[in-house]
Design goal:
The chain is mainly alpha-helical. α2 crosses α11, α4 packs antiparallel against α9 and α11 packs parallel to α14. The protein contains 14 helices and 2 strands. InterPro entries: ABC_transp_permease, LivM-like.
Length: 327
Amino acid sequence: MTPFLKPDFIRPVAIGAAIFAALAFLPSLVDSYYMSLAISVVSFAVLATAWSMFSGPTRYISLATVVFFGIGAYTVAVLGEVMAFPLVLLCAGLAGTVVALLVGFSTLRLAGVYFVIFTFGLTELVRQVVSWYEVNVTREMGRYVFLDITQNDIYWQLLALFAVLLLTGFVLGRSRLGFALRIIGEDETVAKHCGIDVTRVKVALFVLSALFMTLTGAIIAPRWTYIDPVIAFNPMLSFQVVIMALLGGPRRLLGPLLGVIPLTLLFEVLTASFPNHFSILLGCVFMVIVYLLPGGVVGLYEKYRAPKKRTLSTDTETTRKSGEKTA
């Protein structure tokens, strides 16, 4: 029997499909405010899960999320009125893939703080290049986006993208590529001695992660009527995604979702109540999460669950030995 026909694969996929089918009816049940909130939750869920797909197993902290998100959004701003929207999404995906390949092959040999600094600097570099192009070539800063795409359409597209992302991550975790990534995350030297092409594996997953981020930016772009480099390439987005993923737990497929939902609601409150102090409060939230929950909610759960498992297995073994002695 192939792995995709086994019950432990079919059952979670069927449950997930039922949940997403139910979520598809949300627009008919809520008003525009909650619909807007749902779009924020789903978009952050895609970004945080895509980030964790690469950074979770490899333990590389990437701050380039907004680079690919911005590429997707700006592609829609440039091509949205001259091409059909599906073709625009295809162009955005291709652009994000090409940039991810260039970045991956040139930087994934770096590690630790050097990779973090590079990805953060890449965000500013791309933003400045786009700003220079707009000012010196097009002679205008920013673009208007007028597409016949409703809020409900954006929600359904993001929901479908999230479903594809979860299915991809689920299959990836059971594949040889996923196993290779876990070995790389534990020790790259051991991975190389096992015959794993470390650079190629990391680049492949980095590109896959970037593709989902790019498509998220492209899908959500019609939500705005105006896009400029400052909006599309706002580095704050990268930090928000990292915080959400770390709170939930980046080492598990559904872990980031546990951070996305509460933090999206919290950011909504902070933005409305303290608009001038949002960055400071975001930094405080980041420090609290890193200090109190270094492994995220999932890590905390597994930490307290492990001793109970050991105790149960010890009691079982003791009972078995006692039975053998009695016999």
